[in-house]
Amino acid sequence: MGDLLKGKRGLVMGVANDRSIAWGIAKAVATEGAELAFSYQGEAFGKRVEPLAASVGSDFLVDVDVTDDASLDAAFGAIGQRWGKLDFLVHAVAFSNKDELTGRFMNTSRANFKRSLEISCYSLIEVARRAHPLMAEGGSIITLTYGGSNRVTPFYNVMGVAKAALESSVRYLANDLGPDGIRVNAISPGPMKTLAGAAIGGARRTFRHTEANAPLRANATLEAIGGTAVWLMSDWGACTTGEIVTVDGGYHVLGMPQSENL
Ligand code: NAD
After folding, report:
1. Among the listed residues 17, 76, 19, the one whose alpha carbon sits nearest the alpha carbon of residue 41
2. In Å, what is the CA distance from 56 to each residue of 65, 151, 225, 231?
3. Catalytic residue set
């Protein structure tokens, strides 16, 4: 165990199970000495998160649906009461109707467009606004994005649009909150085998393709994503904000698949 994050307290949003990217981050930051609170979406997820939280020494759990202002107010109120401050926040929350993560993008419905953007992008703004007063000594906010934001990826569809809006929000929030010493960044992993990842059409083929073609011939791991988060949350990340940090085995630099795979 290291102490890069000793004395720091953070909220982790988006742990659904032990394969969640948020869980990979939670484990890494806890190993570096951070104290954690977790938000979960509804009772069923709560039951799964409780033992995970306990395994990193946390009993601080709050039930948050990011479309419900009252649940957000209650969560940040609880953090204010118990801790009086927040040093970092992990926003690992996204949703789109699975039926629209396959087939043609042009068939995106108005209702799912709004819902996907609200949960996957607008929620970052909502949580940043609430975290702000708790970060009087400065802080670090991290969200999760994917390269489908600016390059077309099979069946990523409306999530690509939501991630483009999210990445832009990272830059605007970084500029807004910079004078108060709060940094805002995104980590952009390659495809991961999670609940949300599995909802995207052809997920297994995409996973195999990126693994076979990335310069490192490997996809991201929860440990490597967690390590990137440790850097961004620690004082070693002090001068980085508004950034999209890619953790994808280098896949994003390619113009074509490797010759052996053509
Ligand atoms: P996951 O299913 O483990 O996590 C998604 C989380 O979003 C869940 O905990 C779920 O409860 C939460 N969520 C959805 N709607 C919510 C709502 N209304 N209120 C509160 N919480 C809500 O999957 P994951 O892959 O770990 O996803 C975490 C983040 O990583 C997402 O932003 C996702 O887009 C991003 N990401 C995933 C991949 C991948 O391939 N899996 C790649 C790059 C980025």
Report:
1. 17
2. 23, 37, 17, 19
3. 146, 156
DSSP H/E element including 11: strand 9-13
Alpha carbon distance 159, 145 (integer Å): 10
Q: Give residue 1's pLDDT.
A: 74
Instruction: Verify whether ligand 1 is closer than 6 Å to residue 192 (CB atom).
Output: yes
How many CA atoms within 13 Å lie on the side-chain side of 75?
28
pLDDT at 38: 98
Tell me the backbone φ, ψ of residue 30, rounded to 5 degrees. Answer: -65, -40
Which amino acid is located at 24 in the chain? G
What integer pLDDT is reported at residue 243 of this predicted model? 98
Helix (H) or strand (E) holding 40: strand 35-40
Q: Say what the pTM is.
A: 0.98
Ligand 1 atom closest to the Cα of residue 17 is: 3
Please tell me the distance from the alpha carbon of residue 209 to that of residue 22, in angstroms, as a whole number: 24
Ligand 1 binding pocket mutation candidate from 13, 20, 65, 127 (most atoms within 8 A of CB): 20
The pLDDT value recorded for residue 74 is: 98
Give the count of alpha carbons within 13 A of 20, CB side only: 24
Element (DSSP H or E) covering residue 112 = helix 110-117
Tens digit of each residue's pLDDT (9 = 90 or more) over 23-43? 999 999 999 999 999 999 999
Confidence of residue 193 (pLDDT cuts 50, 70, 90): very high
Both structure tokens of 136: 């009087």
Average the pLDDT over 102-130 and give the result.
98
